[in-house]
Amino acid sequence: MIAKTDPKYLSVAEAIEADLRDGAWDGGKMPSVRGVARSHNVSVVTASRALQVLRDKGLISTIERSGCYRIPPPTADRWAILIRTTRGPWQRQTVAISRAGFETLARRESMHLEFDAFDIDGPLTVKQAQDAAARAKKDGIRGVFVLPSRASDADAAIDAAFLEGCDRAGLPSVLLERNLRSHAKLDRDIVTLDDLGAARACTEHLLAGGRKRLGMVVASPISTHNDRIAGFLFALHAARETLTAKKAAQLLDVVLRQPTDSPTKEAYAAVTDQILRHKLDAVVCYHDYTAMGVILELLQRGVRVPDDVALIGFDNLPIGEAFSLGLTTYSYPGEAIAEQAVRLMRDRLKFPERAPVKIVVSGELILRGSTESEL
Q: Over 50: is that where the pLDDT of 129 sits?
């Protein structure tokens, strides 16, 4: 107990700690420093020192420009998240977007997130994966969320071995964003962006702007890219249905293949060559980094963006907003995907024999200068 002669901030810290033990702010955001000061009738300085005591005890954490959050109790669900993004200059930003959804969700709901529970960058056997999954279960991990690699068939084989090992160890898994590379069958739970609807919305936006010669850039043979091709082609088909035969014939659709899965200057140049060869006036790219790379290639060749060619990307990377032109993009709904993935995981733990489920989540088309001259 705090003695009457002890500083006021210690009694405030003790009162907040008692609230934490009673379950207040379980997994969620705590009051601000000013909120604590008002509720305990103390100065902001006293409130700040009280929160520091709780941080020193490991009861709360502070996130810059966000606030204080209760650290989940040991009894909270413990999940592993394995993110297998393509190596390259944009890998860190892409990983951050995938992580951010779970981290934001964990501020609202009580859970522990383990991003380093598994390391499968090298060759992996099913037995090795099974042993790793068994150790993870023993450490309290209840399930693993996996964003599979799209880089190569060799990486896809590693993903498959890892997931089979998890199955044998009884550790449930949910896939994020996409199925395994070159794998069409739905044999485990997946939560993903509504890729078909997203590509359709992007294409409709370009058509509404008067574009007539459209391309869709994809790279890997994965479910995400296949669904975006479908949405792109569907939007153009629907547009032709509303036009006369002459005007419908003026609409061109071309699916462009990035020659490698890795984002490189050479790959962007090859995509730009295809755009110019087909005389396209609008392009939907499978990711912001490809859209940005192509924009730079076009500008270097004297092609005006968006006057000559309009471009749209996916995921809403920070660079798309920081770039002077501004990149129109379809955002990745990370928190909503994380929320649905955790719901699916908990449902899988209750009903391990139910059929696999695929859930799609809508994002938002964010308009910027790469498609609108006046922006």
A: yes
3-class SS letters over the chain: CCCCCCCHHHHHHHHHHHHHHCCCCCCCECCCHHHHHHHHCCCHHHHHHHHHHHHHCCCEEEECCCEEEECCCCCCEEEEEEECCCCCCCHHHHHHHHHHHHHHHHHHCCEEEECCCCCCCCCCCHHHHHHHHHHHHHCCCCEEEEECCCCCHHHHHHHHHHHHHHHHHCCCEEEECCCCCCCCCCCCCEEEECHHHHHHHHHHHHHHCCCCEEEEEECCCCHHHHHHHHHHHHHHHHHHHCCCHHHHHCCEEEEEECCCCCCCHHHHHHHHHHHHHCCCCEEEECCHHHHHHHHHHHHHCCCCCCCCCEEEEEECCHHHHHCCCCCEEEECCHHHHHHHHHHHHHHHHHCCCCCCCEEEECCCEECCCCCCCCC
Domains present along the chain, CATH in parentheses: 8-70 (1.10.10.10), 77-193+334-361 (3.40.50.2300), 195-332 (3.40.50.2300)
Q: Over the stretch 311-321, which tens digit does the pLDDT of each residue have?
A: 999 999 988 88
Least confident of 34-38, 65-69, 126-130: 65-69
Whether the pLDDT of residue 20 is over 80: the answer is no
Can you give the pTM of this predicted structure? Answer: 0.83
